[in-house]
């Protein structure tokens, strides 16, 4: 499932492509991906413009000139493609938004959704989400505050969207590895020095992943060389049995509350 760096990569790359562009048409092949009737959806979008694209947690928010917003969550298996009908990958798009000759394709939107809301309703819709880990005002003190009272394992706590926004299965493991800490340890067992390492690792890994375009395996547009660049740079995720790049010990995979979890049992403490 795309996490913060994947959605941020989409936002950064999509903005110069569609910001300010007028929507010329809409096709919906899976009405269930929407929260309104396809006719109402098409009516709200057609003729309007994309004013801005924001990201919150694993959501993208498309702000329309009408004052309404599109709230996107790709969930598992979802991806985006921007281009002409000829360039589009051979996968079913559940929603297509047209911008003249180029279109934005919402692919694999089966668990995911693209909902139309009033801008004023957005805050309450997203109110349960924890803080954004890369916000400049999210300090180490704040980080300690959000972890205070959490009793679960580090893995489960990091992926809990009500605690922190945007971190999922891959980056929770990558952050723990970078910090040299075991994801299976309970949160109260960490001392302040370890928590500081964790905080720094979180910011470093997420920034690094955005810089390399996240791990999505399909490009956003023809000629896109950024998207997916971080996939080969994952240090532990999906690398069961491979040697740890720090100590050469084979990496292991366990299940933590039915989530896949990869780490080095030798150098993560
Ligand atoms: Zn190791």
Automatic annotation (TrEMBL):
It catalyses: Hydrolysis of DNA containing ring-opened 7-methylguanine residues, releasing 2,6-diamino-4-hydroxy-5-(N-methyl)formamidopyrimidine; 2'-deoxyribonucleotide-(2'-deoxyribose 5'-phosphate)-2'-deoxyribonucleotide-DNA = a 3'-end 2'-deoxyribonucleotide-(2,3-dehydro-2,3-deoxyribose 5'-phosphate)-DNA + a 5'-end 5'-phospho-2'-deoxyribonucleoside-DNA + H(+). The chain crosses the membrane at residues 60-82. One of its GO terms (biological process) is base-excision repair. PROSITE patterns: FPG_CAT, ZF_FPG_2. It comes from the Bacteria. Gene3D superfamilies: 1.10.8.50, MutM-like, N-terminal. Residues 235-269 form the FPG-type domain. SMART domains: Fapy_DNA_glyco, H2TH. InterPro entries: FPG_cat (IPR012319), FPG_Glyclase (IPR020629), FPG_N (IPR035937), H2TH_FPG (IPR015886), Ribosomal_uS13-like_H2TH (IPR010979), Znf_DNA_glyclase/AP_lyase (IPR000214), Znf_FPG/IleRS (IPR010663). Its cofactor is Zn(2+). Residues 2-112 form the Formamidopyrimidine-DNA glycosylase catalytic domain. Keywords: DNA damage, DNA repair, DNA-binding, Glycosidase, Hydrolase, Lyase, Membrane, Metal-binding, Multifunctional enzyme, Transmembrane, Transmembrane helix, Zinc, Zinc-finger. SUPFAM superfamilies: Glucocorticoid receptor-like (DNA-binding domain), N-terminal domain of MutM-like DNA repair proteins, S13-like H2TH domain. Monomer. Belongs to the FPG family. PANTHER family: FORMAMIDOPYRIMIDINE-DNA GLYCOSYLASE. This is Formamidopyrimidine-DNA glycosylase. The lineage of its organism: Bacteria, Bacillati, Bacillota, Bacilli, Bacillales.
